[in-house]
Amino acid sequence: MNKNSLKTIIQSSQINKLAGSNRYPSVTQMAKNLGRDVVKNVKSVASGNAISAGDDVIAKRKQICQGCEFFNGAQDRCLKCGCFLAVKVYLKASSCPINKW
Fold first, then answer.
1. Pairing of strands 71-72, 77-78
2. What residues contact 40, with CB distance under 8 A and at least 6 apart?
């Protein structure tokens, strides 16, 4: 396989699309996002609310995220806020950064 054929394969593959779409917020911004989410969830639990959302809410959140233009399925992360969705969708007081849920 020569260099040009390899380049053509990469350009037409999902690898190229994923590499271009993995633009997360800065580390500082992701830390701020995480901090806000932690504070929101701690306040909610301190007020007597459950930490975990119900199974139906979790399933709906996952469905919404997986259909979102900011979803990175390869890492199960949100490109908008940088959060790991495997955790975020379970936390009852968490919310989508663009208000989809």
1. antiparallel
2. 93, 94, 95
